[in-house]
Amino acid sequence: MNTKLLKVLPDIPEINKLNEAAEIIRRGGLVAFPTETVYGLGANALDEKAVAKIFTAKGRPADNPLIVHIARVREVRMLINYLPVGAKELMKEFWPGPLTLVLPRHPRVPQIVSAGLPTVAVRMPSHPVAKGLIRVANVPIAAPSANRSGKPSPTTGSHVLKDLAGKIDAVLDAGPCDVGVESTVVDLTGEFPTVLRPGGVTLEQLRAVLGRVEVDAALSGDQSPKAPGMKYTHYAPDGDLILVEGAPEDIARKIAELYHRYCREGLRVAVLSTEEHVFRYRQELNPEVLISLGPRSMPEVAANKLYGALRECDRQEADVILSESFERSGVGLALMNRLEKAAKHKITV
């Protein structure tokens, strides 16, 4: 299969290219497209055979549910049995945007989309290309991240092609994504709204709207997942990522110690650093790959850079990646969730 590259403007995508991509979706094909979070790999959510192609292309386990993307709020009604308490408030506040709601699934949604669960995950992206594609295709689009299963998510069209060229029909390439980590997933089918996956909408923002919002204590548990990212290893680079937690100065000292240890073993070492420690690492360590994730006080910057940084470490063939940690508040909660899932080891100092 030859994967067609369709380059479009991010703000005003060319209608002829949207039409071409939409026709691929309608006839049961796969199209990767940008959202404000990461690039998604889309198929007609109501076409069971088309959705099955997503799992094959990605090498994705069949018990890992997908998110269904819509372009208008009213379209959610065709996907669900009823609208739970709190759903309208969250849609009004955060749609379109990086928030996915887990809702009771209507039988017209194929079970493969939800891994056999009685729920369906739905979101309305804000990216003009994503919204345009869904509207022109005139079907809801099921789409996980457009990468090989388990690897860092793609935030550019070139990331998608590196992983999936020859396995999908087309890529709508509109440049880099804005948020850089996947959407927040909130389950509204239980006693209380529960965050299943932290993301671009923060826990603090959710609580400001709904009041009580729980955080799932088993994000990495072995139960049947209601949302992507809950069960399997995700976001992992080729090299072993070691996440170091603690006070900032203690983290820097430990990373220096580990760097010298692995260098003595003849390994190629990369460092993911906060801006505060970049100069120190350059002077004391001279790592083969040093990537700043931005200021420690701005986790949203680090979240935007993270997947690209991990892919750069792979490009440089790093054997070991040493990463600083961040506070678990605001977007930092999502950032740490992704780092922990990508990490081979975690060290607290």
Structure explained in plain terms:
This protein is an alpha/beta fold and 349 residues long. The strands form two sheets. It has an eleven-stranded mixed sheet, sandwiched between helices. A five-stranded parallel sheet has the order 14-13-15-12-16, with helices on both faces. Strand 9 and strand 10 form a beta hairpin. Helix 1 packs across helix 4.
How are the SSEs placed, and which strands pair?
Elements: E1 4-7, H1 15-26, E2 31-34, E3 39-44, H2 48-58, E4 67-69, H3 87-94, E5 99-104, E6 119-123, H4 128-137, E7 141-142, H5 157-164, E8 170-173, E9 184-187, E10 194-197, H6 203-210, E11 214-215, E12 240-245, H7 248-264, E13 269-273, H8 278-284, E14 289-292, H9 299-315, E15 320-324, H10 332-342, E16 345-348
Parallel strand pairs: 1-8, 2-8, 4-6, 5-9, 10-11, 12-15, 12-16, 13-14, 13-15
Antiparallel strand pairs: 2-3, 3-7, 4-7, 5-6, 9-10
Features:
349 residues, alpha/beta, DHBP synthase, Rossmann fold, eleven-stranded mixed beta sheet, five-stranded parallel beta sheet, 10 helices, 16 strands, 31% helix, globular
